[in-house]
Specification:
This protein has 710 residues and is mostly helical. It folds into 3 domains: 77-241, no CATH class; 315-467; 480-707, Hypothetical protein af1432, CATH 1.10.3210. It has helices at residues 2-10, 12-31, 65-77, 88-111, 116-122, 125-148, 153-156, 185-201, 208-215, 231-243, 267-283, 287-315, 317-320, 323-346, 358-366, 369-384, 390-407, 414-440, 448-461, 464-475, 480-486, 492-500, 502-521, 526-535, 563-583, 588-596, 604-613, 634-649, 657-673, 684-707; strands at 53-54, 59-62, 82-85, 150-151, 165-170, 173-178, 183-184, 227-229, 248-252, 257-259. A 4-stranded mixed β-sheet has the order 6-5-3-8. Strands 1-10 form a two-stranded antiparallel ribbon. Strands 2-9 form a two-stranded antiparallel sheet. A hairpin with a 2-residue loop joins strand 5 (165-170) and strand 6 (173-178).
């Protein structure tokens, strides 16, 4: 038992990673539709490459999605929406008008006795007859309007044309009307006003006051809708119409030849084979077959996940050493498979809306193009196993993923993401066009809806920008956008460094220039190493005067200190730098540059001085050595070399080409020989390139110092 616990303790990280991959495997297998796969691969417009296909049993020929969509559209064109006629509206509005009209008449006739002009205007019996006729005519107009029907504009919301027909339900009786026969509130009001004005214009009214009486009536208040959209009935009728659409068109009899070997699969044959494939996959439903299908899918997904593990183990082992990074990779793969699985079950025709290119873009933002491409391939291979037209899907997304990776070399400019999204859309459209005309044999047969889906896909690719930020904060990564922000010299910490230790700040700028150029030339992350270089010496802010680049007089405080104390102060700037970085919440990868930029090297000047003065004593070398760790990435190694070379060059009052060459070679050789880069995958060719860059740039720095002295 003790041995088992010891084994688990020693292999804890490997066991935990294995569990993570196992969990991902189980989730993905359970996301897959439990259907068998048709054993033949085929494409429209391509020769049938298998043996002659004979129908194994009777099966229906299913219509294509395009045919069903066209029939659906045709049926819906003949659909007539249903409206409910409310008979109480006309009674209510006539009653309201009558009450208001009589009230106004009473007010007028009560006032005429106190106003001489009103008395003259309203006293003749002819006017009383006109008011009665006007009332009766208006009531008649109301009845005509409400008999035709008044509909509220919001009820139809622009969905009906004037030549459309609707069905009106009144007293459980349905009657068809042309929509142009129905009034909206504005049209009904105009109709009423025009009829009343025509009547009044035909009269010889005695005074303007009589005319004003009729004009003062607000008829719009009495025009209310009495036709209301009956959504429940309309939906039932619509569903009945759509339910009558047949999804099949004929039968294939058992033993009937479907296609011969070498025969080109035309549109008709393609639809028959698709129908057989559908029936075959649907027929695999027994428990025995279900279990076999599950086993097959388990083996397939295991193969894909295992290959991913092998790739990480051999080429990106640092990811497996960090459980959070492993979770991140597996989470993205599972997420894309889950989205594809749900879409395939709900709306398989909208599969091309899913932005699979977003996966390599996100991976590329934190890692390299090689890893992004491999993960993308593994993901689309898993998805291609269960989506319709698997070859077409894999090929389209394979090309789009490659285009996304190589068009988005970095995210330091937001415009690059828009360019990448546009390139992804163009690659989708271009490849799809080629596949479509090969399969259909004509441009007319292309499904242009998919082209629209590609446009939506490209728009969704832009969502990678906020997603990168979310993943960066959640998993502790570092993106190019954040590096650009951190490398701005107006950052509070860098401004503080320039004020408290201006010499160190200038040294950091020079180191950043050296390291950035070298990293770029050897294929490293130049933006990362530049940012790390700007912050690598922030610990010197605690005691800036003890570092030579900040001493602007002949006074050197180290002359008053013991060699051990001087060495302690110099070495301590690494520890102080880490503390300051933590206080300012610098990302972990930047803090790693602070920890490793001296590795486990010695403070050689004070170490040699100590040996010269205390040659008989036994020396504790750890007191003159930096605590480490040693650099563990190519970028950290470049920074360590650049820092040492630039710092050493400042101790020379004059530098010729030979001196610079010797200086660079001796420092890098010392670091190599002391094993500072033993944890870094850096080649002899990389070292040679770095030497050449440092020599050339140091000459430029020295000439600039002479020409533009501080």
């Amino acid at each position: 038992m003790k041995d088992i616990f010891s084994f688990i303790k020693s292999k804890y990280k490997s066991i935990f990673n294995g569990l993570l991959f196992l969990v991902a495997l189980v989730i993905i297998v359970n996301l897959l539709p439990r259907e068998g796969k048709f054993k033949y691969e085929f494409q429209k417009g391509k020769p049938w490459m298998h043996e002659t296909l004979i129908a194994p049993y009777d099966f229906p020929i299913y219509k294509s999605q395009q045919q069903i969509r066209e029939e659906r559209d045709s049926v819906l064109e003949g659909f007539k929406p249903y409206f409910r006629h409310d008979t109480t509206v006309v009674k209510r509005q006539i009653r309201k008008f009558t009450e208001d009209y009589n009230k106004q008449l009473r007010e007028v006739f009560n006032e005429k006795y106190s106003d001489h002009q009103l008395k003259q205007a309203f006293s003749d019996s002819r006017f009383e007859k006109i008011t009665r006729d006007f009332y009766n005519r208006t009531i008649g107009h109301f009845r005509n309007i409400y008999r035709q029907g008044v509909i509220e504009a919001a009820e139809i919301n622009g969905t009906l044309e004037k030549d459309s027909r609707i069905v009106v339900l009144q007293n459980n009786v349905a009657e068809e009307y042309e929509y142009r026969e129905i009034y909206d509130q504005k049209e009904a009001y105009k109709y009423l006003i025009n009829r009343n004005e025509a009547y009044l214009d035909g009269l010889d009214l005695n005074s303007e006051k009589q005319r004003n009486f009729f004009s003062s009536l607000n008829f719009y208040d009495y025009i209310k809708p009495n036709l209301f959209y009956d959504q429940e009935t309309s939906q039932k009728v619509k569903q009945n119409l759509l339910g009558n659409i047949s999804i099949t068109k004929g039968m294939v009899q058992a033993g009937e030849r479907i296609v011969s070997k070498g025969e080109v699969v035309d549109a008709k044959t393609y639809q028959i084979i698709e129908s057989l494939k559908r029936e075959y996959e649907k027929s695999l439903g027994s428990d025995y077959q279900y279990n076999l299908i599950f086993l097959g899918q388990l083996i397939f997904v295991f193969g894909a996940i295992f290959v991913l593990y092998l790739f990480l183990f051999h080429f990106r082992f640092e990811i497996l050493q960090n459980s959070l990074k492993t979770v991140f990779i597996l989470f993205l793969v599972v997420l894309m498979v889950a989205i594809a699985s749900i879409t395939t079950r709900v709306r398989p025709d909208t599969l091309y809306i899913i932005p699979f290119a977003i996966l390599p873009i996100i991976i590329r933002s934190f890692y390299d193009a090689r890893l992004a491409l491999f993960i993308h391939i593994v993901t689309i291979m898993i998805v291609g196993f269960f989506v319709p037209n698997g070859f077409e899907f894999v090929f389209l997304n394979f090309i789009a993923g490659i285009v996304a990776i190589f068009s988005l070399t970095s995210l330091n400019r937001r415009g690059k993401l828009f360019l990448s999204a546009a390139m992804v859309v163009l690659s989708y459209v271009f490849i799809y066009f080629g596949l479509a005309i090969t399969q259909e044999g004509s441009i007319e047969g292309i499904n242009w809806v998919n082209v629209a889906y590609f446009g939506i896909n490209g728009a969704l690719v832009l969502a990678s920008y906020p997603l990168i930020y979310i993943f960066e904060k959640s998993f502790g990564f570092l993106s190019d956008v954040t590096l650009m922000e951190l490398s701005d010299t107006n950052q509070p910490l860098l401004r503080r460094l320039s004020e408290q230790a201006p010499g160190t700040f200038q040294h950091s700028l020079q180191v950043a220039s050296l390291a950035e150029t070298a990293a770029y030339q050897i294929g490293g992350n130049s933006l990362l190493v530049r940012t790390g270089a700007l912050y690598h010496d922030i610990g010197k802010m605690e005691n800036p005067i003890y570092f030579i680049e900040n001493q602007d007089t002949d006074f050197n405080p180290h002359t008053q200190l013991e060699f051990l104390e001087s060495a302690r102060l110099i070495i301590n700037h690494v520890k102080k730098g880490v503390e300051i970085a933590s206080k300012y919440k610098l990302p972990g990868p930047i803090v790693d540059f602070i920890r490793t930029h001296h590795g486990t090297s010695k403070v050689h000047y004070f170490y040699k001085k100590y040996l010269q003065n205390y040659n008989e004593e036994e020396v504790d070398e750890s007191q003159f050595s930096y605590p480490g760790p040693k650099p563990f990435s190519k970028e950290m190694a470049v920074l360590m070399m650049a820092d040492s070379v630039e710092a050493a060059s400042r101790s020379y009052s004059s530098l010729d080409e030979k001196t610079i060459n010797n200086l660079v070679d001796s420092i890098i050789d010392l670091q190599l020989n002391s094993g500072q880069f033993e944890n870094v995958d850096i080649t002899f060719r990389d070292i040679t390139i770095i030497r050449g860059i440092f020599k050339k740039k140091l000459q430029n720095f020295y000439h600039a110092r002479i020409k533009y002295p501080a």
